[in-house]
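Re: beginner question about structure tokens

> Can someone show what the tokenized structure looks like for a real chain? I only ever see the sequence side.

Sure, here's an example I had lying around. Input first:
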Amino acid sequence: MNQDPIYWLFPKVIEQSVIDLFLEESKTLQTQAGTIGKSANQPFRKVSVQYPGEFNHINLMLHALAIKANNKVWNYELTDSFQCELLTYKETVGGKYNGHVDTLRMSPGLVRKLTVLAFLNDDYEGGKFFVMQDEIHKQYIETLPGSVLVFPTFLMHGVEEVTKGTRKSIVSWISGPDFK
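And the corresponding structure tokens:
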């Protein structure tokens, strides 16, 4: 495990056979353009999304790893997993997601607190994942297949444009009561 005060990385904790099974099962899922809010904002976010459900085997692993990281680093009060998305960034459309945060108020007193990402492949070029603590400096994080990254939803992050191939990852969020 690689620890940084702003994120927690579990290197290669998901076996390739589990990733392969998940990707095979995802072929039956409906694909749609990624949105920001209720609208697709293609200049900012160029990604396709599939929704495998909150109780798929990888998302259950992500939830458990997020709890483990939270207990080591942040100790946020958490309640449950919220939404799971399979993200596909293709070179043919300049797949990317500019710097953003994942904060969201889901209902009164309930907010997203942690973002959890699983990286599924590395047979692409470009598509570097980054976090930013300010508007200028990007910190790149190694995204080996099977690795899982956990960080607070208020941390700025993004994916640079994929220049060759297709990049796949899964994202989920862990929610809890308002920050105090």
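Each token stands for a local structural state, so reading them left to right follows the chain. The helical segments are 16-26, 57-72.
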